[in-house]
Amino acid sequence: MIRSRWVFIYTGFYLIATMALLLLSNDLSKVLISLTNIIIVLTPLIGILFGTMYYYNSKEFIQLLMAQALSRWSIFIGMYLGLAIALSLSILIGVGVPLVIYGVLGSSDVAIFILLITMACVLSIIFSLIAFLIAMKNDDKVKGLSISIFVWLFFAIIYDGIFLLLLLALKDYPLDKMTISMIMLNPIDLARILILMKLDMSAMMGYTGAVLSKFLGRGLGMLFISVSLVLWTVIPLWRLNRIGAKKDF
Fold first, then answer.
1. Domain count of the chain?
2. Which residue has the higher pLDDT, 23 or 107?
3. Which of 9, 118, 127, 186 could form a disulfide bond with 47, CB atoms 3.0-4.6 angstroms apart?
4. Looking at the predicted structure, is the pLDDT value of residue 201 above 70?
5. pLDDT tens figures, 112-156
6. Domain limits at 23?
7. Cα–Cα distance measured from residue 55 to residue 61, given in angstroms and rounded to the nearest whole number
C-alpha cells in the first residue's frame, strides 16, 4: 500500500497544500484553520473511495489468501490496517513534516497541530472501515462506488441540511438532547467540533457545537466526542468481523 502511486499523489497533494498555506501566511493559527477545512472534507472522501477501490482490486488476492491456513479475521484486519496505516502516513508526512520544519512544535499551537493530525488519521481509519463494509456487502463494483460517494456526500453535506430542516420544523420544542444525540451520528461533525473547541472558535462550531459546549462544557464535551469517535471505530470493526465470517468468496 505504501508503494502505491495513489498514496504518493495523496501525500504530495498535502505537501503542496501545506507548503502553499505556509508561504501565504506566517500565522500558524490561520494555516491550521485552513488545513482543518481541507482535511475535514478531503480525508473522508479519499478514505472511503480509496478503500472501496482497494478492496475490489484485491478480490482475487483475497480469494488466494482464503485458500491458505489463515483466519478470515486476520486476512481482513491485515488488509484494512495496511490501508489505514498508509493513508495515515500520508497525512503525517504531507501535513506534519512541513509544519514541524516550520517550527510548530515550539509554538503555542502545538496542541492544535497534534489534534488536527490525530483527527485526520481518525477520519481515515473510520472511512476506510466504512469503505470495506460497503465493498464487502456489494459485489458490484459500480454499485459499491456509488454507495461510497453517496455516504461521503451524506456525512459531509446532506446530513447538515437534514439537521437544519429538523431544527426549523421543530423550533418550538426543546431540541438540546436530540441535538447531542444526532452529533454522534456524524463522524465528520464530531472531528470538526472537537478541533474548533480546541481552537476556541465558538462562532464556527454551529448550533450543534454550541449546544454541546453549553450543556457538557468543553472538557466533558471533548470527552463525549472522543468516546463517540472510538465507537465509530469499534462498531464498524465488529461489523467487519461479522460480515467477513459469513462472506461467500
1. 1
2. 23
3. 127
4. no
5. 889 899 999 999 999 999 999 999 888 888 999 999 999 999 998
6. 5-246
7. 10
3 Cβ neighbours under 8 A, 6+ residues apart: none
Q: Which amino acid is at 61?
A: F
Q: Which set of grid coordinates corresponds to residue 227?
A: 468516546
Would you say residue 57 has pLDDT above 60?
Answer: yes
- In angstroms, the CA 106 to CA 218 distance is 25
Q: What's the rounded Cα separation, in Å, for the pair 214 and 90?
A: 36
